[in-house]
């Protein structure tokens, strides 16, 4: 049996940009991606703490060290610059493997989106 479990989580980062005219997705600082074990084009769920919105999209790699969290395209309507979000990815795995799996969870500084 396969089940879905939390694979990676960036817990509480601040939205730095919202670009409605982009094709779609979320741009994430590459330092944050590496620390959370996320890759470009990976599907993620974005949960907005400020307004309760939830959406699914895919990752675009952002420039390292800038702390960029940018919602693009229609997703830009789900968050305002300054909102705090949680970014989660999931993985399907065998039930027995899932029992011992440990997700990559990071807690960046919510003011700067930098690793601490």
From TrEMBL:
Residue positions of the active site: 25, 58
Entry annotated with the keyword Lyase: yes
GO cellular component: cytosol
CDD domains: Asp_decarbox
Catalyzed reaction equations: L-aspartate + H(+) = beta-alanine + CO2
Cofactor entry: pyruvate
Binding site for substrate: 57, 73-75
Keywords of this entry: Autocatalytic cleavage, Cytoplasm, Decarboxylase, Lyase, Pantothenate biosynthesis, Pyruvate, Schiff base, Zymogen
Known pathway: Cofactor biosynthesis; (R)-pantothenate biosynthesis; beta-alanine from L-aspartate: step 1/1
Residues where Pyruvic acid (Ser) is found: 25
Single GO molecular function: aspartate 1-decarboxylase activity
Pfam family, one: Asp_decarbox
Cellular localization per UniProt: Cytoplasm
Subunit-level organization: Heterooctamer of four alpha and four beta subunits.
The family this protein is said to belong to: Belongs to the PanD family.
Role according to the record: Catalyzes the pyruvoyl-dependent decarboxylation of aspartate to produce beta-alanine.
Protein name: Aspartate 1-decarboxylase
Species of provenance: Tangfeifania diversioriginum
């Amino acid at each position: 049996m396969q089940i879905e479990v939390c694979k990676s989580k960036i817990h509480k980062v601040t939205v730095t940009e919202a670009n409605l005219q982009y094709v779609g997705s979320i741009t994430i600082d590459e330092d944050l991606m590496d620390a959370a074990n996320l890759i470009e084009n990976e599907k993620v769920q974005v949960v907005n703490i400020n307004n309760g919105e939830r959406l699914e999209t895919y990752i675009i790699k952002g420039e390292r060290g800038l702390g960029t969290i940018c919602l693009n395209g229609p997703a830009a309507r789900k968050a305002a610059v300054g909102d705090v979000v949680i970014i989660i990815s999931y993985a399907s795995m065998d039930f027995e493997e899932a029992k011992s799996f440990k997700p990559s969870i990071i807690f960046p500084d919510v003011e700067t989106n930098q690793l601490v």
